[in-house]
Amino acid sequence: MAETKKLLRALAGEVQDVPPIWMMRQAGRYLPEYRATRAQAGDFLSLCYNPELAAEVTLQPIRRYGFDAAILFADILLIPQALGADLWFVTGEGPRLSTITQQSEFEALKQVDAIHETLSPVYETVRILSRELPSETTLIGFAGAPWTVATYMIAGRGTPDQGPAHALREGNTALFEALLDRITAATIEYLSAQIDAGAEVVKIFDSWAGSLKGDAFLKYSLEPCRVITQAIKDRHPGVPVIGFPREAGEGYIGFAKKTDVDCVALDNSVLPAWAAEHVQVDGCVQGNLASSHMVTGGQALVDETRQIVEAFSKGPHIFNLGHGITPDADPENVQLMIDTVRGR
Ligand code: CP3
Questions:
Q1: Pocket of ligand 1 contains residue 77 by CB under 6 Å
Q2: Chain-centroid distance, C-alpha 64
Q3: Which of 99, 131, 155, 244 is the most buried (most CB within 10 A)?
Q4: Which range marks the domain in which residue 116 is found?
Q5: Residues near 75 by Cβ (< 8 Å), separated by ≥ 6?
Q6: Residue 23: which CATH number?
Q7: Does ligand 1 have an atom closer than 6 angstroms to the CB of 66?
């Protein structure tokens, strides 16, 4: 049967007049209905682990905007928690975790098989969504890339320059690599279970890939992404993988070929014309409107959206932002972006 879902068609390499569109963090605080459901859940983590409510917030942007894909509502930091790290969120500041900087702390982590105990509600969310999503909407599962997840596990919080993770990488390479290997193995099991539950595509978020340079980028961003992609393809032939080595710059060139991902997601620091020439030559790309346009709107949003659609029009393309939408965004601007992409 010919594939009818627009997102899956783009991932299979089809060039479409109107690209499929979805948005990173499309379920989030810029939407009043999200804020209401989050209040009902109590806090962010309770929302992640409540399958009915997590499915509800995943569906909200689909109902409101009719995006071509829904992304499972969860967080990349559930993996550290499932491995035994303490995790909590400080309102207005972000995540906090118990840190891993010493061998003894690493040894206290759980083994990979134990993760499903914590993560089973997430698989239930996926099952609910695969029943309830409209037939034209693709369900995307996701996980953080090992490097990005490790930066939070090592520092115990978000950091502007990932300094603590770089310090461990250089100061105790064996421990750093053991941690990356544990996260990599856990991520394979986690994504695989999401696919078993009904995820049709998986995306690997390497939000801090840009702070790895040269060989370190190849070893700790590209290589784990390749290993995870390979394992997913071995176990689930035909399930596409999207890689997002955010701010990789020149590292985007050849990333799809070297990792075997079906699509490379681009942040907005790269010019669409450059990316069309150097990245889209190898297959589907996703991106890359600056999320600030969702705050500012107006003609600049329209012009920039059109330029991106045009620049990527000769190859397979999934329209998206270059990073997640922010809480101060105006929901009307999201509609304007969609209307512009769809030519209405
Ligand atoms: O995109 C979606 O709609 C799906 C759900 C999703 C969330 N986080 C929900 C979330 C996804 C795919 C993520 C990925 C994620 N989480 C990343 C990688 C992508 C990126 O943005 O770079 C990272 C680094 C995290 C870790 C994380 N989660 C941080 C640093 C924070 C706090 C900062 C912030 O934006 O508040 C979160 C919280 C978080 N994850 C929220 C949401 C909707 C906001 C929480 C709230 O409701 O208070």
A1: yes
A2: 21
A3: 244
A4: 2-341
A5: 44, 45, 48
A6: 3.20.20.210
A7: no
